[in-house]
Here is the input.
Amino acid sequence: MNHPVHARTPNPIAGLLKVFRTELLAVGAFSMVANLLMLTPTLYMLQVFDRVMSSGNDLTLIAVSLVTLFFFAIMAVAEWARSRVLVRAGVRFDAALNTEVFRASFEASLNKAGRNPGEAFADLTNLRQFLSTNGVFAFFDAPWVPIYIAVAWLMHPWLGLASIFFAVMLVLVAWGGHLYTRALHTSVLDAGMRSNGFVQSKLRNAEAIEAMGMLPSLFTRWRVMHLTHLEAMVSNQDKNQRVQALTKFLQYSQQSLMIGIAAMLVIRGEISMGAIIASNMLMARALAPVQMLVGSWKGFMAARLSYQRLGALLTAYPARAGRALTAPLKGQISLRGLIARAEGRETPILQGLDAELRAGELLVVLGPSGSGKTTLARCLLGIWPLTEGEVLLDGVPIEDWDRAAIGPSLGYLPQDIELFDGSIGDNIARFGTPEPSMIIAAAKAANVHEMVLRFPQGYDTPMGLAGSQLSAGQRQRIALARALYGEPSLIVLDEPNANLDDAGEAALMQAMKALRGMGRTLMVISHRGGLITLADRLLILNRGRIQALGPREALLARNTALGGALPAHQSATES
Here is the structure.
């Protein structure tokens, strides 16, 4: 189902951040101590030049220096403590959010929302890292800028005015630089993602590319994307360098002009000699948070985008408390006006289907390619994103069930077999806690036990990425064993014999007979006639509608009237 995002919906991450109020208060307290003690170098310089140098008293110098060192030690501890608190808070933030991000990104992928699930975890990492960097310290230090400027003003109004001028200029440069580079920075990221995504998608089909000599043509297309990315990146770096050059000009000018202004005031006799160095240090301290904000501005904007994207993801796919499984599933399926749609397609794939899959029966679904058979299988399992009407599992809408609770009671063999990196046993056990007896039972039910034992390490044999170490037929038979693991109540098989040889199909027929005898509910999609002999009922789809649904014998007898929808050799043998 779709989960619409409402523009005014509060970001769920904002509520999570409130949980860390204690940590933020602690960081604020440590920042207050550290920033107060940042005045120590200024006061030390004033004491040395205005008292120690004039009096020539060594004991006074030693005493002032020891007190200064003591304050520096406290400041260092405060800096360390607030950094430690933020790092720990970042880890807790990740721990509190990663489960929801994992679940929501999986649902987004399942609903074909268009985002790479890895981007959500990159956003989470970006947020966690920003919470643990100096960029956050800059926000805590920024409120102290007026205080430092006020101290400079107390030394002399001109020093305060100079501090205000340079602070405002740095802020304006930072904001203007953001506006100046924002659009181009976004285009650089988009171009890089397109280029990398193109390469990754093609590498998954490297064998077909090599066999058919497609590499030169694909390289030409990738090179155009890559050069577009490089051009945008160069332009973006040029703009960034201009902003950085202007920022450095202001920083260097501030350091020199502050000394010049202070020297002029000394010449006029309005401040002391010690105030020259003290005012320069105070000015540097006053502008340090501003400079830190300027330096971390890109990181802040990136974290802000991550915050918005993660918030939108979690809002679109909120956690739902599904219905718990209180009794074993029977596997009864009811379709009530089922309509299935696809993005960019006006005509529905499935158009108002009403049907029943009775508990304990074997239903074989037939129909020409593109009639909606695979979509129907996915709708039955609740994994098709755009649906209307109802799919009831044991009388309950499929989306209302807790997926983790009913998952072991469902078996699914998709048309496109996808096995995962791990052992054969791990794949059959669905990567849960492996139960050797259940793994062997599922393998025997799928008639692959003997085949697995012939592998070098048996059930511990590594599959390789996506089952690359196995043939298509072997992958299909192991995927069938995975579908049968745990004796599920409802089993949906999409073209289970597509990649099987005669021996494999004979083993499949034997497995279907055994499952039928055990009272399992099965829906099997097939283009080949062998499985029809086992069916209790047949369902014929055509252009997204049910052309016929009824007992096998009755539909076989009506095959001519149905336009030869059943496999010709099968109808001939049965009629």
